[in-house]
Amino acid sequence: MSAFKRLKITPMRVLLIILLGIVIVTFIPMVFNPIRRPQKMVRNYILRLTPIGTHIDDVVKFIESKQEWTVLYINYKMGYAHLGEPIPGWPVITRTIPGSDGSITTRRTSIIGDKSIRAYLGEYYAWYTLGYHTAVSVFWCFDKGGKLIEVYVSKEIDII
Fold this sequence. Notes:
Elements: H1 3-7, H2 11-32, H3 39-49, H4 56-65, E1 70-75, E2 80-82, E3 92-98, E4 104-112, E5 115-125, E6 133-142, E7 148-158
Antiparallel strand pairs: 1-5, 2-4, 3-4, 5-6, 6-7
C-alpha cells in the first residue's frame, strides 16, 4: 500500500495544505514584526507607543531607544509636507519640481503641523512584492508647543 493511500492524500487536501502554507508565510511574520502590517495598523501601533499630545523631545528619546529605528530628521521649523492630495484645514504650498528632462512640475502640498520628525523603522521582503523590499518610515507632526498632533506612515517599495 502506498504512502498516499495510507495518508488518504487527495488533490483537495494538497490544495488546502498549499493554501495553509501561503497563509502562514504571509500572516505569521506580521505577528512578530509590526512594520509588516498594513499602514493603518502600523499607525495605530505607533500611536499606542507615542500618543497624541506626546512632547517632541519625548518622541525623539523614544525613537532613539529603539535600536532598529533611525531618526532621519527633526525639523523644528516646518511640519510634515504631505505629498498626497492637499488636506482640508491645513496650509497648502505650491512646490516646483524639476524633471530630469528639463520639464517643471508643480505640486500642491499640505503642511501638517509646525514641527516634524521622520524616522526609518526598517524594511522587509515579502513574496507578494515579488521579492522587492519595502522600506517603512514614520512622520510625527507637532504643533507650535511641540505636542504631537498627527502621525503618518510611509511604505515605499523599491523596484529598482
